[in-house]
Write a structure and sequence with these properties.
Helices cover about 65% and strands about 0% of the residues. By secondary structure, the chain is mainly alpha-helical. The chain has a domain at about 30-64.
C-alpha cells in the first residue's frame, strides 16, 4: 500500500471532469481504489484493523 502507484495530476483531473460530465457522485480515478472501497464497505471492522496497523508505517515513512 505504501509503494502504490501515483497518478499524474492531469490524469486525475481528466477522470474527475469525465465523472462530473457523467453526473457521477463517486469518482475513483485510480484503478485500485474501487477494490479498496468495496473491501472497506464489505468488512469495515477488518478494514479498520488494517488501517490501525498501517498508520504507524505511514508515520515512519513520513518521518524519513
Amino acid at each position: 500500500m505504501l509503494g502504490g502507484s501515483v497518478l499524474d495530476p492531469k490524469v486525475v483531473a481528466d477522470e474527475v471532469m469525465k465523472g462530473l460530465e457523467d453526473g457521477r457522485f463517486l469518482i475513483l480515478p485510480h484503478g485500485e481504489v474501487p477494490d479498496h472501497y468495496a473491501f472497506r464497505a464489505n468488512d469495515t471492522d477488518r478494514w479498520l484493523r488494517g488501517m490501525r496497523r498501517l498508520h504507524p508505517r505511514i508515520d515512519d515513512v513520513a518521518a524519513g
